[in-house]
Amino acid sequence: MVSAVWYFKDNYLLTNTITEQNHVLMIVKIKNTAISLVKGDITFQETDAIVNAANSGLMGGGGVDGAIHRAGGPSILEECKKIVAKQGRLPPGKAVITAAGNLPTKYVIHTVGPVWRGGNANEAAILASAYTESLRLAESHKLESIAFPSISTGAYGYPFAAASAVAIDSVIKFAKNEALLLKKIVFVLFNDAAYESYAGALEIISRQ
Ligand code: APR
């Protein structure tokens, strides 16, 4: 069964579609950029870039980081090592780009989110910066599409409700104020709780 709800307001349109597989897909269009939510595994995304929720050492890890290095093969780690040798550890909130090895995407943008320390340690600003710096890097490489995981909400412990509000707010601001070539920004959510949280944030913030 397919059903859709459409909302129009100024320069965006919101669809809320239930597909045949019963996966909910949500899309909001801000100016020329579509922001969408899907459920799934980020390593399968065919966008121009996917974003890695890395750590400052850029040497791989678990979660998204482990999945990307496993699926992409050793060339990504080799490139990360060269970056660290040249410029040192990657501070939280910053981003760097590598090729994508065996992944179906062209590039991996590695960013570092904040570790959740209760909410008073600048976490929101660092998380917003991780999204914005990744998007700027994508623009500077003339990319048209990018897929994000839910940065910081796994090993780094950021609660989904707070993280999704920051993530959605950051990409909507970017789409409104900075996007030139980027036409598609996808959030790839790994489970129902993550999806529901991002869908709620997208609906609220995109109506403002
Ligand atoms: N695709 C999409 N989302 C995924 C995947 C995947 N293959 N695997 C995990 N997730 C989800 C998790 O459920 C979580 O909500 O991504 C979110 C981020 O989780 P982490 O990967 O643990 O990232 P983060 O919280 O930013 O912690 C970063 O984890 O492994 C390390 O090297 C990494 O030290 C760094 C830390």
Describe the structure.
By secondary structure, the chain is α/β, with parallel strands linked by helices. Helix content is 36%, strand content 26%. The chain has one domain (6-206): Leucine Aminopeptidase, subunit E, domain 1. The chain contains 5 helices and 9 strands; from the N terminus they run βββββααββαβαβα. It has a 9-stranded mixed β-sheet, with helices on both faces. Helix 4 crosses helix 5 (192-206). The longest helix has 18 residues, at 123-140. The protein is globular and about 45 Å long. Adenosine-5-diphosphoribose is lined by residues 41-43, 53-55, 61-67, 113, 149-156, 188, 190, 194.
List all distinct small molecules, including ions and cofactors, that are bound in this structure. adenosine-5-diphosphoribose
Counted by DSSP, the helix tally is: 5
**Beta-strand percentage range:** 25-35%
The level 1 CATH classification is: Alpha Beta
Strand order of the largest sheet: 1-2-3-4-9-8-5-7-6
The major beta sheet can be summarized as:
9 strands, mixed
How big is the Rg? 16 Å
Structural class: alpha/beta
CATH third-level topology: Leucine Aminopeptidase, subunit E, domain 1
What gap, in angstroms, lies between the N and C termini?
Answer: 31 Å
- Gross morphology is globular
Average pLDDT reading: 89
**CATH superfamily, called what?**
Leucine Aminopeptidase, subunit E, domain 1
Instruction: Count the beta strands.
Output: 9
The multimeric state of the shown protein is single chain
Helix share bin: 25-40%
Secondary-structure arrangement, i.e. CATH architecture? 3-Layer(aba) Sandwich
H/E element sequence: EEEEEHHEEHEHEH
